[in-house]
Design goal:
alpha/beta; Rossmann fold; Serine Threonine Protein Phosphatase 5, Tetratricopeptide repeat; 2 domains; 14 helices
């Protein structure tokens, strides 16, 4: 009998020590950002002062109300508006929109990414009992899967100084859908701290959470003006309504949260956590600064074009991207060969993408070969879809292989 009591006691202790995520976790049926889906507002975006070439981003939208529900489709639309800002600045974006949200594929794509963006439900542990204190908040709500804080911390390996941006996710900035006007500043601090800490421990340096899609667009755009993470947060709010303090769960970080009003309700709808003093341009490595102007004299234009041709022949990607940002012509030619064809021949997919973004002609022909025909002939499998997406066509049989 004594052995039975001992065994039973150990069994009770075992169940009490199970990870919190094994408990029942839920998200509200109504996502916090859904009320903003029908509000049309164009963000007033500043011009970039440096290029995002070489930077990777991963955009994720979870299942809000079914694959074809208005909430899910609205969140996808909002996320696409944010990714347009990134792409306009040269960032390569990989998108995972419900139901195509494989966690294994997401983890692999996040490796080395400087931006991770998530739109969808936030995850919490108490949706029914006022004043709605949460013993657990965090992670992602994907199709058929909650991604836990532990999975975030141990599985995600972003680039140094990466940014995580959560759009319309309950708990991530403070309030959820059911507790506006109920929770206080202490609960908000608790939630933002718990939600952000796993990302910071995984290597992210900036955590932004907002309800508004235009705020998300503006955050991204401001980061490309050279502002540090904290100043970027400040541009999108009334500082008299912001509290700034040391991060309770991450000793080297800060935590900011916004306390505003909606009618008679106090709301907490915008937060930051991480290192407010670093900048995107300092953290992503070698990023070519854009010149203040790309107006060149005819002599300067010729010199830039010739330097670009030489750089491509040397397969010098960094110099090629810099010269393009300084005004070199993406349709430069040498002995009939365009820069786009040379980039295909030397197998430089990143340069091909940049040239296409800068309006290089995808259907210019060299010896009867469009760039797509040349890519097919040389089996440049990473380049073919880029050319197809840009409207490239095939011009002839690919049995031959022209050389520059």
């Amino acid at each position: 009998m004594n052995y039975f009591k001992i065994a039973f006691s150990f069994l009770i202790l075992y169940f009490l020590s199970l990870p919190l995520f094994a408990q029942t976790l839920e998200h509200p049926n109504h996502a916090i950002g859904e009320e903003l889906l029908k509000i049309s507002k164009r963000a007033n975006l500043p011009d970039a002062t440096f290029s995002g070439n070489g930077i990777k981003a991963v955009a994720i939208v979870g299942d809000v109300d079914g694959d074809s529900g208005s909430g899910t489709l609205g969140y996808i639309k909002n996320m696409q508006d944010v990714t347009k800002v990134l792409r306009a600045r040269g960032v390569k974006v990989t998108e995972f929109y419900s139901p195509k949200t494989s966690w294994d594929q997401i983890k692999e794509s996040v490796r080395g990414a400087s931006f991770v963006l998530y739109a969808g439900h936030g995850v919490g542990s108490n949706l029914t009992d006022s004043p709605y204190h949460q013993t657990y908040v965090g992670g992602f709500s994907l199709k058929g899967k909650f991604v836990s804080n532990n999975e975030v911390e141990t599985s995600l390996r972003p680039a140094p100084g990466a940014i995580i941006l959560l759009l319309g996710a309950c708990f991530a900035a403070g309030n959820m859908a059911y507790d506006m006007g109920v929770i206080d500043a202490e609960e908000t601090k608790h939630r933002v701290s718990m939600y952000s800490a796993p990302f910071l421990k995984a290597g992210f340096q900036g955590y932004y959470a907002t309800w508004a899609p235009w705020t998300a667009q503006s955050i991204v755009a401001e980061l490309f003006t050279g502002k540090d993470f904290g100043s970027t947060y400040d541009t999108q709010t009334n500082l008299s309504e912001v509290t700034k303090l040391d991060h309770p769960a991450y000793s080297s970080g800060k935590l900011f949260y916004h306390k505003g009003k909606r009618g008679s309700q106090v709301i907490f709808d915008y937060a930051f956590a991480g290192n407010p003093n670093i900048t995107l341009s300092n953290q992503v490595g070698e990023i070519s600064k854009l010149p203040e102007t790309t107006s060149l004299t005819p002599e300067e234009q010729i010199a830039k074009n010739n330097a670009l041709i030489k750089a491509v022949f040397k397969k010098d990607l960094k110099t090629s991207l810099r010269l393009l940002n300084e005004g070199a012509d993406p349709n430069s030619k040498t002995k009939g060969w365009g820069i786009l064809h040379l980039s295909v021949y030397f197998d430089l997919p990143e340069l091909v993408k940049t040239l296409l973004d800068k309006k290089a002609d995808p259907n210019y022909q060299v010896d009867g070969y469009t760039a797509l025909s040349l890519a097919t002939a040389y089996e440049r499998f990473a380049i073919i879809p880029l050319l197809e997406a840009a409207g490239g066509t095939k011009s002839r049989s690919t049995s031959g292989k022209p050389k520059p």
